[in-house]
Amino acid sequence: MPSFINEGYNPVCFSDEMSDLKKQSLLRILRKMGRTFEVSESKLESYAILSAMLPTYFWFQWKELVDVGCRIGLTKEESENAVRDTTLAAVRTYFYSGLQPDDVMDLIPSKPIGEHETQIRDIYEDRLLPLFEKIKP
Q1: Rounded to two decimals, what is the model's pTM?
Q2: Is the pLDDT of residue 40 over 90?
Q3: Which of helix, strand or coil describes residue 121?
Q4: Do 61 and 122 belong together in one domain?
């Protein structure tokens, strides 16, 4: 869905019979929707689980957090700004700080939903891996 705002992550696969000239022409068009790159056909379903569906794993949480912010005294705009800006900074911290994942997760000592992390991991495991098995060729 980030392709909706031209910031997609769009793996594509081409037939071996397609000429390089046609591939490059099509890639130029597709890149207008965001990062577009060629992958082997065997990886398309993996990218479907990890990138195409990924926004659905978080959107409802961001909506709920904005709603919580409104219920605890922030305006909708303040809540949206806080959730958006902190989420973007958290992603940058996780991937670009140079810290190991466990070290990043230890930067904040208070974890209000920490007791539910196992349940959340289990949901990913119970839902995503079987879905992959169902859609893989």
Answers
A1: 0.86
A2: yes
A3: helix
A4: yes
